[in-house]
Amino acid sequence: MRVEYINPFVEAAVNVLKEVLNCEVERGKLYLKSSSMSIKGVAALVGLAGDVEGRVLFDMTKETALSVAGIMNGEEFNVLDDMVKATITELANMITAQAVTKLHDLGFKFDLTPPALFSGENMEISNSLDVEALIVPMDLGPNGQDGKIEINVVIRERI
């Protein structure tokens, strides 16, 4: 996986999260995952197609999703209702759109699928592209007190 694909997603995530949540955002230590992995509870998935194929997954706990949606909407949420789901989907849209714009400016051409939102317990996502997933943890607020969003990126050039 080329670093040119990853950096725009990391930069876009930091920029968008800082802007919409008005909090500190600290990127944690990146790591690779080659097999299936557990989903924390709420995940927005965006597919990539064109010169590359792959996906970007925004993974968080239900509590983090409720907190993020609350901040973005200026109200408190206690259940994962349609407004919370729409807000998390929109957050995924905002981050991927900014990243893809940067990638298009660098000459890469690909399209996005609309985000799909998954929620529940004991879910896993498997990596079917035979490419390791790069996991980028994002701690929200000082020392991660407002939660963590993990960006799970799998991209490979189309052969």
Order of helices and strands: HEEEEEHHEEEEE
Which fold name fills CATH's third level, the topology?
Answer: Chemotaxis protein chec
Task: Specify the helix fraction band.
Answer: 25-40%
Give the C-level CATH assignment.
Answer: Alpha Beta
Q: For this entry, what is the oligomeric state of its chains? A: single chain
Number of strands: 10
Beta content comes to 25-35%
Uncertain spans:
none
What is the assigned CATH homologous superfamily?
CheC-like
Structural class: alpha+beta
**What average pLDDT do the residues reach?**
89
Largest sheet: 8 strands, antiparallel
Shape: globular
Output the number of helix runs. Answer: 3
Rg on CA atoms, Å: 15 Å
The second-level CATH architecture is 3-Layer(aba) Sandwich
End-to-end Cα distance, whole Å, is: 13 Å
Count of distinct structural domains: 1
Quick take:
This protein has helices at 3-21, 62-73, 82-105, and strands at 25-27, 31-33, 37-38, 42-50, 52-60, 110-112, 116-119, 124-125, 133-140, 148-157. With 159 residues, the protein is an alpha+beta fold.
Could you explain the architecture of this structure?
The protein is α+β, with helices and mostly antiparallel strands and 159 residues long. The protein has one domain: CheC-like (Chemotaxis protein chec). It has helices spanning 3-21, 62-73, 82-105; strands at 25-27, 31-33, 37-38, 42-50, 52-60, 110-112, 116-119, 124-125, 133-140, 148-157. The strands form 2 sheets. Strands 1, 2, 4, 5, 6, 7, 9 and 10 form an 8-stranded antiparallel sheet that branches. Strand 4 (42-50) and strand 5 form a beta hairpin. Helix 1 crosses helix 3. It is globular. The two termini are 13 Å apart.
